[in-house]
Specification:
Length: about 325
Amino acid sequence: MTESPTRRSMPSIVFVALAAALWGTDALFRRGLALELDASVVVFYEHLLLTLACLPLLARVPWRRIRWSPRVLGSLLLIGVGASATATFLFTLAFRYGDPTTPLLLQKLQPLVAIGAAWLLLGERPRVRLGGFAAAGILGAYLIALRDPTSVSIEQLAPALLAVGAAILWGLGTVLGRGLSTTFAPRELTALRFSIGLPASALVVLLDTGPAGFASVSGDDLPALAALAAIPGLLALWLYYRGLAGTPASAATLAELAFPLSAILINRFAFGDTLTWTQWVGITLLAGTLVVISRLSQRGYEHVGVEAEEPEPALQG
């Protein structure tokens, strides 16, 4: 018996939200590493460990079955090189200018980029209701990210451009990943993303720190790097692509806002960070938006405000 779209849609978007929530555990492992290593070095060793872990999966990719069209190759390159390696580095680099507000604020453009790209590239048709959910989710994420939302200014052009570049690459990564779900199973797409991102992350290290960056890691760093690669890396991305296969990109990009929600709660309860009342308002607004979207998706994504054809995904797993 074929599973109905209604029964299939709820787990799909929940998988995306769970994956995004696991991305929020990043700080548990990265905080200590950030004190000792450059961000580009951490990103490279993440990709190295993840590529090694995914070698058995790469060996099982049905290379001859896949139609390696320019669209497939271009999408894989943009996901692996752009969304996986370059975007993370651009976003981290934006913070080096001493203005944390600008990258945090402009990164919230990511859902708008994804919704626009899904309309242009995948033929998804956003409706007014989706705009309401996007506004509520982005406002909640904005309140979470900024301790004092009343004093916001974009002070420098360079960090603004870097943050916008990262938001565009991450938004395109969501849309292109959705498009590739008809060609690759989630485990295959996960393995390909990390392996393609590895040489790109190595190039970023060379540009950022020079060859000496590769030798800056010690044995004491390996447990944290391994945990970083396993939980917000491998497990999260497998869940993400499994969910993305059954979720329109326009809805998935809103489910990804579970990332700032889980990140701020982890910082509060694991590291004792204090939160302002506006951040608590943002937490409530964003959590409520995610719950409503998830419940409405059980009845079909048109109730969330997205009209999209449901492509037949590749084999699950």
